[in-house]
Structure formats: C-alpha cells, structure tokens
Amino acid sequence: MKILVCLDGEPHTSGAIEHAISLGLSGRAEIFGLHVVDPWLRQFYSEIYAQGRKEYLEWVDECLEAEALEAGVDFDALGNALGLEADFRIRHGEPLAEILKEIDDLSPDLVITGGKPLTAWGRFRSGNLPARLRKNLDGKVSLIAVESADSGAESRAPENHLGSELPVQ
User: Which position among 2, 4, 13, 44 has the lowest Cβ density within 10 Å, counted as fewest Cβ atoms?
Assistant: First the structure.
C-alpha cells in the first residue's frame, strides 16, 4: 500500500502525519510526504510590494524553500523516531494541481491531508483544499482529511472520496 500525506508546515498537518505513520506502522505501507511550495505569496508580493526588488523576491523564495525543507525534516524526524522510513518530496506550483500531479505520478492507494475547521467565510477564503481535492479525485484514490484536534472543534470521522466515513483510531 502507498500512502501520500500532504504537508504544509502548519499545526493542523500534524494529525495527518500521525495518522499516516500509524497506518504505516500497522501494516506494510510505503509513506510519501509531499509539500507544495505555493507561488501565490511570491506573486502577490511581486505584483504589489516588491516590484523591481530582486533581493526581496529572492528572500521570499528562500523563506518558502526553507519552510518546505523544515516540513520535510519534521516529517522525517517523526517517522524515524517511530522506526518508519518515509520518502519526502517537494513540488512547486498551485497546491491542488501539484497534489493531483503527484497522485498521477505515484499512484497511491490513500491520500491523507490535514484539515482545520472552517466557517463559511473561512472555506471561501482558504479554498478548502481537502474538499477541492476530494472533488478532483474521480474515484482514483481514497482521501482522509484529518481535522485538527487543537482547534476546539468537534472531532468527526474523516471521509473518503465517496463521502462515506472511514474509521480512525
């Protein structure tokens, strides 16, 4: 079994990592971590604040790359501490498109993402990547969106791409 866990370096991703590792330890599974460096921040600053300021744009690129590498180090450290080897990958581009490309390239059996509880406005602002990903999977792979436990929201069972609940221990 191949499991792809999507990492973004945010606290709500830790539940997804823990769930992927627990599945990896409970059976014979290959775990792959993926972090997508989103160019949106660079584009925003390029257009508004840093027009013509090459050094600033280079600094933004360095920060985004450092964030991706840190997510990988944290992912590897957690897996290694539990005796699980995992592969970590970095992609650059719009997150949904890059995750879908990775799914096509890797052909995982399961994709795990982190999730945070969102209000209606929050879903609009964030784009709700797990929901958008679920719509684009076309039955290719199961998806688990592990909602952050530190959010104070009620815990709910993750859903697969068909909308049925998957058990989480």
Answer: 44
Handedness of CA 136, 138, 141, 147 (dihedral sign): positive
Q: Phi and psi for 25 in degrees, rounded to 5?
A: -75, -25
What would the two tokens of residue 28 be? 């014979």
CB 13 within 8 A of CB 95: no
3-state secondary structure of 145: strand
- Lowest-pLDDT choice from 19-33, 41-55, 82-96, 124-138: 41-55
Q: Mean pLDDT across the chain, nearest whole number?
A: 75
CA dist 76 → 82, 106, 128 (Å): 10, 19, 26
Q: What φ, ψ does residue 30 adopt, rounded to 5°?
A: -95, 130
CA 123 to chain centre: 16
In degrees and rounded to multiples of 5, residue 117 shows phi and psi of -65, 135
Residue 45: which pLDDT band, with cuts at 50, 70 and 90?
low
Measured from the Cβ of residue 103, the count of other Cβ atoms closer than 10 Å reads: 19
